[in-house]
Amino acid sequence: MKKHILTLSVAAAVLGVTAPAMADVTLYDYEQPTSAYEDAYVSGRLNVNSGNQDQTSHDLNIDMNYDRVFSSPDRDINITGDLQGSSKRGSNAGDDTQENYIGTGAVGMNKYFQPNSKGAFWYTDGEIGVKKGADDPRVKVGAGVGYGRVVNVTPMAQAMRLVEALRDKNKLSGDLSKAEYNQIANIIAKESEYRAKYGAADYQQNWIADMEAVMKASGKTNGELGAVGILKSYDVLVNERISTRKYGWLVKAGLSEVLKDYDGGNTKPALDVAAEYHKPLSNRTQFSNEASASAILRDNDKSYTANNNMSLTHEVSDRIDWLNSWAVNYDHNDTTGQDTTTNAASSTYRYYLSNKLAFDTVAALTKVDDDIGGNGNDEVDKSLFMGVTYRLK
């Protein structure tokens, strides 16, 4: 009898130790291969001065970004866009308004040889760019092969935030299993499907009701979530914003053709290589690094460019994000013999006034090395500004 009691005690102790570990869920536990996300932002800042000067001066900067990714077991499709514009006029009489803009749009697809894998794939992509003063837009298409995969785990981050909020409100008596977290995350990932099926005005009640059904089936809700639980779920999933979370890596290489270039030239073959690495350092901190290089394949033109973009985003609270980025661009123009290196670092404190509108405080450093003296960029450009960001998607 004592032996049985001892055995039961040891078993209970082991279960008591292992149960929390089994319930310890991370972003890496997301198992759904089919997901999608869409980010669309427009940011701007404006400074206008008048009085005690010859004319009214202004400084306007606008930045628009778009990123849409759809992932299925056998392919990833990515659509991106970026447009930056500025308008400036000095305070002295005769100062003209200087306007500038540069924009790029791209679409690409990675098609995996083996579905549900993180292995080999072939890709195809296309890019178009416009900028002020260019003779023509830049049009480029390419194809190649690669290895690896980047997984969007934002739905799991939202599921974890939802469960945490409901536990704080005592609407859940315990944590959920990894399988239950995945069920909720999969429902969150299908938001667009719910919107298409039930309509934009009514889909949220069905969307949240299906998540509630998963939690009720776990036996940890003590019945219905009630008005408090439903309203809190709506607040977390609809009113709050969360930055995109993803993990994984990939490398790829291929050939491309510049069909049209800014200088009016065309039919330039090029060799392209690229790599990505993304890692959530915690449930609130995301690290990402993306690098690429492209070289013209012509005997009389050995121009090439290289880019590296590194970012670290930390979610300080449900309404505050701290975004840090460092971008390096190196360009060698074989025609002119000029080498240009641009370093741009910024740190942004973003406070979401609502799920759409945010107030930004940004500190930025920019340094351009082009071996040309006296052209206005010899020193580090330091700036501190405040502006607003509107999230379209």
UniProtKB/TrEMBL annotation:
Q: Which residue ranges are recorded for the region named Disordered?
A: 78-99
Q: Which InterPro entries match?
A: DUF481
Q: Tell me one Pfam family matched here.
A: DUF481
What are the record keywords, sorted?
Signal
As given in the record, the signal peptide range reads 1-23
* Composition bias type Polar residues, residue spans: 81-90
Q: Protein name, please? A: DUF481 domain-containing protein
